[in-house]
UniProtKB/TrEMBL annotation:
One of its GO terms (cellular component) is cytosol. InterPro entries: G_TrmE, GTP-bd, GTP-bd_TrmE_N, GTPase_MnmE, MnmE_dom2, MnmE_helical, P-loop_NTPase, Small_GTP-bd. Residues 212-351 form the G domain. It comes from Oryza nivara. Residues 121-462 form the MnmE helical domain. Signal peptide: none annotated. This is TrmE-type G domain-containing protein. NCBIfam families: mnmE_trmE_thdF, small_GTP.
Length: 469
């Protein structure tokens, strides 16, 4: 496809961007080629021979595709053809998920399909700099078949077991006894599958919210250089905050599509606002108050409130592990203890270009503290991909395996899966405690019902609704 649309067809996001997460967002096409452009972007779920023909004032369900035919989002398309539209020209609305990323990607697809941006003042680069494309992909939760197949399979296995158990209740004498070992292992298997699905929700959350990574360490070990090299290697969006001309305090990179915000202490000294914004960055306090802070232990818990999901402790290979490093790390450990929330830590040994061999004995007492050691040279960027790998491993960020079709569960699916999971757990203990079989069926029914609730939510392929003129 592509091209061909007259200059008179415009595309615009007509719901607001950047506000709270709205349920639905709308991209509106208007102009003589609105239907043609929509036809290139929209693929109806309903089985119909292409090309898609818009029916005025009918809502149709399907997906929006990018230029390469990849699915961007599930959408409802509402054509309002001239003269029955408010502007008296052809209008087609694409209603997609309300988050910014979905909206922007659908808009971009419309632009690639030949529309032009409604307001030239609109900042096209905003579309392109979408933080993480994977987040939008995961908004497709459930529609790509894998998930609904899983739910269906789980449900039919529940019903199978239910049938077997009920048969024993009704015709106890005529049937061989249930193989309990087999039964329990089947339930276990199902529970694991539900758990895997539940895990995708956590991954999904990560895709949305990203990870906060704090880079801490003594002054001059190379924290800022590391952050700069890292963000450059990722062609990241680097936030330059007023008052910090030389150093960057916050940068975004992404690993496996997960947005990572790197926090460094550089420049924080200059501006109070940044202190507010970034909160308790440990190394800031450290460099501000230095050892006095470490000794008197004031504000311990504040340091723990750091809020980072992961801490990168940076040392210099030139200096080796120093007394101050010990103090700093001990302080972090105390804070972690008092806050009760363990934050995983990775040790970065920087400046390996100057002193490549640093003995692990120097920080042996903290051996268990650091999940990984990585050697870097922040000047050349050497070791940064290893650092990324370490973060992935430490945080268990391996993407949910997929053959090009990752799915993640949404909140409602999550709740029903949890209900399923709990039913399986009760069922197992009912079996173990040798409760009567009637109890077993209650739990199995509960699981099957929860699973049915999930499938019942699927929008059917026939979802075509007349909305009136
Ligand atoms: P920070 O105070 O921890 O943020 O340290 P900086 O990033 O400001 O670096 C302090 C000094 O060390 C600067 O002169 C850097 O150029 C230098 N530096 C940082 N990383 C390396 C490295 O890997 N190798 C070498 N040779 N110098 C580095
Ligand atoms: Zn610095």
């Amino acid at each position: 496809g592509g091209g061909g649309a007259g200059p008179g067809t415009i595309a615009a996001i007509v719901t607001s961007l950047g506000g709270g997460p709205a349920a639905v967002g709308i991209v509106r096409l208007s102009g003589p080629d609105a239907a043609a452009v929509a036809g290139r972007v929209f693929r109806p779920a309903r089985r119909a021979a292409p090309p898609w023909r818009p029916r005025s004032h009918f809502v149709e369900y399907g997906v929006a595709l990018d230029r390469d035919g990849g699915v961007i989002d599930e959408v409802l398309v509402v054509p309002m053809l001239a003269p029955r539209s408010y502007t008296r020209e052809d209008v087609v609305e694409l209603q997609c998920h309300g988050n910014d990323l979905c909206l922007r990607r659908v808009l971009r697809a419309c632009l690639e399909a030949g529309a032009r941006l409604a307001d030239p003042a609109e900042n096209v680069s905003r579309l392109i700099s979408a933080k993480s494309a994977a987040a939008a992909d995961s908004a497709l939760a459930g529609i790509q078949g894998g998930f609904s197949a899983l739910v269906k399979s789980l449900r039919s296995r529940c019903i199978e077991l239910l049938t077997e158990i009920e048969a024993r209740l009704d015709f106890e004498d005529e049937l061989p006894p249930l193989d309990l070992t087999m039964l329990v292992s089947k339930i276990n298997g199902m529970r694991q599958e539900v758990q895997d699905a539940l895990d995708t929700a956590n991954y999904d959350k990560l895709l949305q919210s990203g990870l906060q990574v704090a880079i801490i360490g003594r002054p001059n070990v190379g924290k800022s250089s590391l952050l700069n090299a890292w963000s450059k290697s990722e062609r990241a969006i680097v936030t330059e905050i007023a008052g910090t001309t030389r150093d960057v305090v916050e940068a975004n990179v992404s690993i496996h599509g997960i947005p990572i915000t790197l926090l460094d202490t550089a420049g924080i000294r200059e501006t109070d606002d940044i202190v507010e914004k970034i909160g308790e960055i440990l190394s800031w306090k450290y460099s501000m108050l230095h050892s006095a802070y470490l000794y008197n232990g004031v504000e311990r818990s504040e340091a723990a409130a750091l809020g980072a999901d992961l801490i990168i402790m940076t040392i210099s290979a030139v200096d080796g592990w120093t007394e101050d490093d010990t103090k700093l790390i001990e302080h972090v450990l105390i804070s972690k203890k008092s806050s009760g929330a363990p934050v995983p830590m990775v040790l970065v040994i920087n400046k390996v270009d100057c002193a490549p061999f640093i003995s692990g004995e120097q920080f042996e007492q903290f051996h268990g503290v650091f999940k990984k050691h990585v050697q870097t040279c922040a000047v050349t960027g050497k070791g940064i991909s290893e650092l990324e790998k370490a973060i992935i491993e430490v945080r268990g960020l391996e993407p949910v395996p997929s053959e090009g079709r990752r799915w993640t569960v949404n909140q409602r699916q999550f709740e029903q899966l949890l209900r399923t999971q709990q039913a399986f757990t009760r069922l197992e203990s009912s079996i173990n405690e040798q409760l009567p079989m009637d109890f077993w069926t209650i739990d199995l029914r509960e699981a099957a019902l929860a699973l049915a609730t999930i499938s019942g939510e699927d929008i059917s392929e026939e979802a075509v609704t007349y909305i009136g003129a």
